[in-house]
Amino acid sequence: xxxxxxxxxxxxxxxxxxxxxxxxIKINTNENAYPPSPAVLDTLKHFDGKSLSRYSSISNxxxxxxxxxxYHLQSNQFVIGNGSDEILAFCMLAFFNSKEPxxxxxxxxxxxxxxxxxxxxxxxxxPLKQDFRINFEDYNRFNGGILIPNxxxxxxxxxxxxTIETLLKNNSDSVVIIDEAYIDFxxxxxxxxxxxxxxxxxxxxxxxxxSLAGLRIGYAISNPNLIQVLxxxxxxxxxxSVDTLSEELxxxxxxxxxxxLEINQKIQHTRELFAHKLNQLGFVVLPSKTxxxxxxxxxxxxxxxxEFLNEQHVFVRFFPTNKRLEQFFRISIGTDQEMxxxxxxxxxxxxx
Length: 352
Ligand code: PMP
Prior knowledge:
Layout (H helix, E strand, L loop, with lengths): L24 E2 L11 H8 L15 H11 L6 E4 L1 H13 L6 E4 L5 H8 L4 E4 L19 E4 L11 H10 L5 E4 L20 E6 L12 E4 L2 H14 L6 H11 L2 H24 L3 E2 L6 E5 L5 H10 L2 E2 L1 E2 L10 E4 L3 H15 L2
Parallel strand pairs: 1-11, 3-4, 5-6, 6-7
Antiparallel strand pairs: 2-8, 7-8, 9-10, 10-13, 12-13
Helix pairs in contact: 1-7, 2-7, 3-4, 3-6, 8-10
The chain binds 4'-deoxy-4'-aminopyridoxal-5'-phosphate.
């Protein structure tokens, strides 16, 4: 380490790998199996590149209005960011400033802990129940805020709205953030509860159900008071974090409801077929309302299976360093054809 003052010692966060082979089946980072909507691609084709000499919009009013129309809310109930990762980081900076620890599940999106550490926010991880469900009773304690993904990741398990409503009631003096990154794959959003609970913030992304992971757009929905605080954080940190092209393409994505409904229903259908097939092969599969499944095979050597899949350029997510998940794979749902090929490879391995 250099002999100068003030340098922070920090290990890098390692997101899922991004391998790049022409013949690969990439089902390791929960991207959408299908392309963005034809309208998005058309907007891209006709985008006026000359406009890029100007800074992007600070308010992102165009996208907010498109979202407000979709959800029947007001445009001042949205804040837009560079992926929901950025929005979640803004939420932590904006709302988690008390001395009490914030609470999030002990098996959940890995970034929560990373940001809490980065921003020096005290936290407690709340263990999941034996069946991997969230233990909501354990959240009824002194806390500086709550962060829960619904459905949870990487379990894929979805909790019904009344459970979230009880959580909101029992924690009315702290902000509760519900990260709904995967809500469009079979769950029901708690957005309607925003009217009733001034402590609720819902976070969404265009990376999963909108098939735009490479574009980096996410947003928070809440009451105008909390949104204003988020806007202040955003403008103090990076007011132009949403680029002009991304905003334009996202508006087209919001307006392509029918297309997205269709592909996301298709993904749910493929998920159910794939989960059924996994069960037939002896895998244990957690109930999922996402575009992935968490699964393990009690009799298989999962490390060897992981290597076998990699050799054939099939990339799934493996968690060898997590005690409770070390035998599990998280497998994103690809196209029918891809999942058929994956099934064949799993069969081959189990027959050895
Ligand atoms: N929340 C959860 C639960 C996620 O799994 C992810 C993506 N892996 C995100 C948020 C962030 O998504 P993005 O930054 O692409 O919007």
